[in-house]
User: Fold this.
Amino acid sequence: MMDNKRHSIIKEIQDKIRQRRLYPLIVTDITNVRYLTGFTGSSGFCFLTDKDAMFFTDFRYVEQAESEVCYWDLCVEKGKRIETIKKTIRKLGIKRVGFEASQPYLFYEQLSRLGLKTKAYKNLIERYREIKDEVEISHIKEAYKRAETAFLEIKQYIRPGFKESDIALKLEMALKDKGCKRIPFDIIVASGSNSSRPHATVTNKTIEKGDFVIIDWGGECNGYFSDITRTFLIKDANLDKKIEIYEIVKTACHLAVSSVKTGMKAKDIDKIARDHISKHGYRENFGHATGHSIGLQIHEEPRINKVNNTVIKEGMVFTIEPGIYIRDFGGVRIEDTVHVLKGQTEQLCNLPKELEILG
Assistant:
């Protein structure tokens, strides 16, 4: 994220605290900490008042924080975190404090024992993360490029005789070779009847003739992720129904992607994909959300589902991934990613969506 954007977010939060619309804020979710500070280590938290912007980390990360963190006063965390917080609020004379609703109940209990008035804020920082700036977009685009290049190198192994686990391992190695420091989630390679499970785990099943093969994977660049799903079909006789199902999902994906524009609601995008699949008799075979935002985490806000009233804005990046899953038969999922621009959209995944029959 651009430093000037980070600085403006800090100032905006401080203004809200000053105007008493927010309590002084403790941020402990490490992804939100990274977003606000630029710190890439695994231990740290932020403390924001109307005047103070304090970043705490322990001895292990002090030198790293000195090189990564701007606009924050760097403080060394010693001992238990709650004791550090206790000393800080006494020093600052704070009587109330806000925290992220996503944090464990134990953290709330610990704060309450300090005699503070507390308030949990849901998705406070995550709402800022919904809008990506040009630096974030460049990282996400590179994450897609790495994921696509890695996949194309191992695509030749999607054929009869290879195991799901063989393909997943080769793809993970290729992603690392392309510069991905992390794999954003466990790669899915699901063939045959396994493909009817939207979040199937990789098995030692061997790919066979007539199988659907769903592959769901992602890349990484500077902490930002990509997420891609493609479904392939292995050559065999009597593939008509499988081809028909694939085309239904492909059209649902296309209709939803084509509909995206600023001002519409997330649930309206979901409805377009879901209505098309339902029209063809597969309503009960599409049970998950149509998509999700992507960034420093693989699943971010907004979620593209049938109840989300979030208004689509310029700068959002989210997936569109409808599917049809039939027990003991197989499944299809096709996943695109949309970057919302003023008056138009940009698709970040360049892999083709036309059905490929392999083997």
Notes: The longest strand covers residues 228-234.
